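Second opinion, please. Pick holes in both lines of this record:
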Amino acid sequence: MQPQTLLGYTRATPFRPFRIVLNSGRTYDVHHPEFIDVGLDDAVYFYRKSPEGPHERWETFSLSLVEHIEHIHPAATASPPA
């Protein structure tokens, strides 16, 4: 996946929550743009209870592993910890 594609989801106005699905089946639910940071080749997902609060932990994944992105309902539960 190109970084511009993922950035399009994070910068959308209005923002719509989305799920990143990796080819391994691993998922990341992004309920706010502050929950993810996109680089040229990878992304960092921050586990947070709220956008204003500190992150509890983070994970990095390669953009080449992204199978697809799908929009989710805002009330959907976040990805469980690994």
The chain is about 10% helix and 35% strand. Residues 3-71 form a domain with the SH3 type barrels. fold (CATH 2.30.30). Residues 46 and 58 are 4 Å apart (CA to CA).
